[in-house]
Design brief:
heterodimer, A: about 600 residues, Beta-Lactamase, 3 domains, five-stranded antiparallel sheet, five-stranded mixed sheet, elongated, B: about 130 residues, alpha/beta, Rossmann fold, 5 strands
């Protein structure tokens, strides 16, 4: 008599043990997800079940048989408790209430099994009968010919699990995970067919033993194969993603030795994947580059944070700008186990930024020219006055020289007055020149009060023409780091706007107040008028482009003011006055504070 | 007819320091006495005898209202002719000149001969019965 069944059962339990160990260890090393823990538990329980069955097949006494069959039910309950949760974890289909109900259901069966004297499967004490297998092996007959009520109810639970499995499988199929759906369907199919076989055996339709052990193992094998396939797939997909990313990526250990590089890295640094692994940057890249990268790597490891820096590297013989990131990969406890380097080519982006920058400056220049043009009549007036005085003085001087007695003191005074008046005209010309110039002036320390005064001088005639009273409250000795021309442009724009806003007001009701204050770190300027004012909902929108109330206006003036303020690390806002008119406030950081304004480094 | 020194007085009204100084000096170099005022209000505040030949006024001063000013001049019984000097020459300014009833409208920078000729003309006109 050859024994085939029992040894093969032991072999199968060995396979389950191995699977449980394999997946359990993987989880403990935190290399895979928690689903594998469920699978390991499932394998362990199936192993126990198979061992119990093997024992039952060899039972010598009825008592032993009853005890083993009770344990068999325990095993089955656990299998059916864990299996749905495993499906849920694996597919992401988690109907919580349903799963909890199932678990409770099987727990009840487990409890009933414990309470009943003969276990859940039998209503009565079973008899020890035997079955002869085709190859001559004789084993205890474990078929259940008189199933108990609990056994019948348990069938409902089994059907529920199968239904859930099918539902999850369809869900996966719909989501495009066709392979997984197929594997799950196969596993369920096999499981179901083995259940059917068992029933057929129980009802005497088929004259053979149960095959539930084989059924469970087939399920486990299918799921294990599927998980392995997915893991391989994931790896390949990740590799493909890495290789097709338009950036260079490398992974190094803490000593700087390369563990992984992608194709982008190969092409950027002209290295070969096979040749570089295990070597450091110093072995394979130019020394200077390797040194700089190593500095960043060390900083990343120490701080535990991403280190971002720009490097200029050569590509096809031309230097290009790269944004590099070195960041550490951290374990659960926060220590680093590797460093990842990413190199992104930003040359074109940088060029676009610079072009945009340049374009913005041109817009500012155009706005300056436009503003200056708007006050050109007043500027002409301002120059005209000193010229008129010079002409009168000079012609008077000539007349004096024709007198009998020439008073040289008078002549000297005339020349002094001519010089003074000429310089006065010169100031206006200089102010005009500053506004019209196109090239960038460097950032410098600017006295805010003086800056404002110069603008008011330029606007002297304009203010008179508009019939406006100007009140100044200027704090002295406040210096800000700014581009003087741009700052004056802002003041000019805001003041012209204020003057225009008051055009419709009756004479005597037109008041402009310019005030300078400061807090610890900021200087604040406010320009307040008594004009038509601004609607509440427009207070922000006026700074967007192309807003104007003037028929010939371009509508960029306030937008330019805002972008100039932003580039100075300042801010600007408008406020509607409680009585009448509007006030514009802008702030600037005082010198000696924080970072220099944009573009200050490249003067 | 040449201007007789010592008998002519003009009033200069201009808000710009340098211009006032220049005009006063020019008058002096031509032998004409002058008095300079910073604003029409300052001018009206003083008592004037009719010896003044005319008023040289910058009519583009702040808050300049030609009609109002000419009314107040008439009020005070001042019938002095006004020679307008202006840094601007646009429609508004011309209207202002008309409102004031100016005799001459000269643009800055004013040439000395042009100005003196204007003063001479005004004096001669007034001298005629």
């Amino acid at each position: 008599m050859s024994t085939l069944l029992v040894p093969s059962l032991y072999l199968m339990s060995g396979i389950c043990a191995y699977a449980a160990l394999h997946h359990g260890l993987a989880v403990m090393q935190r290399r895979v997800s928690q689903v594998h823990l469920l699978f390991a538990a499932l394998c362990a329980v199936v192993m126990a079940y198979i061992l119990v069955r093997a024992g039952a097949y060899q039972a010598q006494t009825v008592e032993a048989l009853v005890a083993l069959r009770k344990w068999e039910v325990v095993g089955v309950c656990f299998i059916f408790m864990i299996f749905p949760w495993f499906i849920a974890g694996f597919t992401g289909v988690r109907p919580r209430r349903f799963l909890l109900a199932l678990s409770v259901f099987w727990f009840l069966i487990f409890a009933v099994n414990l309470i009943l004297p003969y276990g859940a499967q039998f209503a009565d004490l079973p008899r020890l009968t035997y079955f002869d297998l085709p190859w001559g092996e004789r084993v205890v007959d474990l078929r259940v010919f008189q199933p108990s009520l609990a056994h019948k109810i348990a069938l409902v639970g089994v059907l529920a699990i199968i239904a859930f499995g099918v539902h999850a499988s369809i869900d996966q199929y719909r989501r495009g995970l066709k392979c997984r759906a197929r594997s799950l369907a196969w596993a369920l199919g096999l499981f179901f067919s083995f259940i059917l076989f068992n029933w057929a055996a129980n009802w005497g339709l088929i004259d053979f033993i149960h095959l539930s052990e084989f059924g469970f193992l087939a399920m486990l094998v299918m799921m294990d194969l599927e998980m392995m396939r997915e893991s391989r797939n994931d790896k390949r997909r990740m590799r493909d993603v890495l290789d097709h990313l338009p950036v260079a990526i490398c992974l190094k250990d803490l000593r700087g030795r390369f563990q992984l590089i992608n194709r982008g890295f190969e092409t950027l640094f002209h290295v070969d994947d096979g040749a570089i692994l295990g070597k450091t940057a110093f072995d394979t890249l130019p020394q200077e580059q390797a040194r700089r990268f190593r500095i960043d790597e060390k900083q990343a490891i120490e701080t535990g944070k991403d280190v971002e820096r720009e490097h200029v590297l050569e590509w096809d013989g031309a230097p290009r700008i790269y944004e590099t990131h070195q960041f550490p990969l951290l374990r659960q406890d926060g220590t680093a186990y590797a460093v990842c380097g990413v190199y992104i080519d930003i040359t074109e982006t940088r060029q676009k930024d610079e072009a945009l920058h340049k374009f913005r400056r041109q817009i500012w220049h155009t706005d300056r020219v436009a503003s200056t043009g708007a006050i050109s009549a007043s500027l002409a007036h301002e120059i005209c006055q000193p010229l008129a005085a010079i002409l009168n003085n000079a012609q008077a001087g000539l007349r004096f020289l024709d007198h009998d007695r020439v008073d040289l003191e008078e002549i000297r005074e005339i020349f002094q007055d001519v010089v003074r008046d000429d310089k006065r005209a010169g100031t206006i010309i200089n102010g005009l020149r500053a506004m019209l110039q196109q090239q960038e002036t460097p950032y410098a320390d600017v006295d805010l009060g003086q800056c404002i005064e110069e603008v008011l001088e330029l606007l002297h005639s304009e203010v008179i023409r508009h019939g406006v009273d100007v009140e100044r409250r200027l704090e002295t000795n406040l210096t800000v780091r700014a581009n003087k021309t741009q700052l004056q442009q802002v003041i000019l724009n805001l003041t012209i706007n204020a003057l225009d806003a008051m055009a419709e007001q009756p004479a005597g009701e037109r008041r402009l107040r310019i005030e300078v204050t400061h807090t610890d770190s900021k200087a604040a300027v406010s320009i307040r008028d008594t004009g038509v004012g601004i609607a509440e909902d427009m207070l922000d929108r006026i700074f967007e482009g192309f807003y104007t109330t003037k028929p010939q206006g371009l509508g960029v003036g306030l937008e330019v003011c805002r972008s100039i303020m932003e580039s100075h690390h300042g801010s600007i806002r408008a406020e509607a006055n409680p009585d009448r008119g509007a006030t514009f406030h802008f702030t600037l950081p005082l010198t000696g504070d924080v970072a220099a304004p944009d573009g200050a480094a490249s003067a | 007819m040449p201007l007789k020194a010592g008998t002519l007085h003009v009033s200069i009204v201009d808000d710009d320091d340098s211009v006032r100084k220049g005009l006063s000096r020019l008058m002096r170099s031509a032998g004409i006495e002058s008095q300079a005022y910073e604003s029409p209000e300052d001018f009206l505040a003083e008592v004037h005898n009719q010896d003044h030949a005319c008023i040289l006024m910058d009519i583009t001063m702040p808050r300049m209202n030609g009609l109002e000013l000419s009314a107040r001049l008439r009020e005070k019984g001042i019938a002095l002719p006004v020679i307008a000097i202006s840094a601007r020459d646009d429609d508004d300014t011309r209207q202002l000149a008309r409102d004031l009833g100016v005799r001459f409208f000269l643009r800055k920078p004013v040439d000395d001969q042009a100005l003196l000729d204007a003063i001479s003309w005004v004096v001669q006109e007034d001298a005629r019965p």
